[in-house]
Specification:
OB fold (Dihydrolipoamide Acetyltransferase, E2P), 2 domains, four-stranded mixed beta sheet, 7 helices, RNA binding
């Protein structure tokens, strides 16, 4: 990899609205996966599960020079040949090595860059999604237990309501609704953010219209004298 290629990665960073460092880390991940897939024969799903050898990648941010190593832990008896090396074999490389040490074996990165480039955009897109999910989770986790204002985005056929709260969509189930109320898309609602969890699709926001703290807040807004 040369300087021109590094410049291309920086341009990609501008296009995706991320830092050059994030693109470089994504490219390192792509190189790791390319090596494990191409040289070790693992499928993408297996690599995502953590199967295959431990691979470290170093890229000089000035010259673009790539160094890759496969890392193995020295053990008495090998149980995972991808991640371990027997002491008897390790001693052939280093007579002073001991059980528990880690050994690095150089990898020739030649030819891997082209394969990695094909996966780079996909990996970068996935990282951006994960980063956005984390930002949204942290934002609303800090607001857990507060009253928020949102807009009803939809109501499903079971009567469950979904409320847009800025960058996140909240779930208002039947059990958290006020029985006498009717909800419709576009309606502005004051809700109580009851719980924030992580999920595979992103942050899960549970809100309530029946929570006692929200009812107390609404009552104070309706009857100012109560607040006093």
């Amino acid at each position: 990899m040369n300087r021109e290629f590094l410049d291309a990665l920086q341009q990609l960073a501008l296009e995706r609205g991320v830092t050059p460092e994030e693109v470089l880390e994504a490219f390192k991940e792509a190189l790791r996966k390319a090596y494990i897939k191409r040289q070790k024969g693992y499928r993408k799903e297996e690599i995502d599960e953590g199967k295959g050898p431990e691979v470290d990648v170093y890229i000089d941010p000035q010259t673009g020079r790539i160094e890759m190593v496969e890392v193995r832990r020295v053990v008495e008896k090998v149980e995972d040949p991808d991640k371990e090396i027997a002491l008897s074999e390790a001693l052939q490389y280093d007579p002073e090595v001991q059980v528990g040490d880690e050994m690095e074996f150089p990898i020739d990165p030649e030819g891997l860059s082209r394969v990695a480039i094909q996966d780079l955009r996909q990996i970068l897109t996935q990282r951006l999604k994960e980063s956005e999910r984390n930002r949204i989770y942290n934002e609303y986790k800090d607001k857990e237990g507060q009253e928020l204002t949102g807009v009803v985005s939809r109501v499903d056929n079971r009567g469950n309501v979904f409320v847009e709260l800025g960058r996140g969509e909240a779930y208002l189930p039947k059990g958290e609704q006020i029985p006498t109320e009717r909800y419709y898309p576009g309606q502005r609602l004051k809700v109580f953010l009851k719980k924030v969890d992580r999920s595979a699709k992103g942050p899960s926001l549970l809100v309530s219209r029946a929570h006692e703290k929200l009812l107390e807040y609404l009552l104070k807004q309706e009857v100012p004298e109560i607040a006093e």
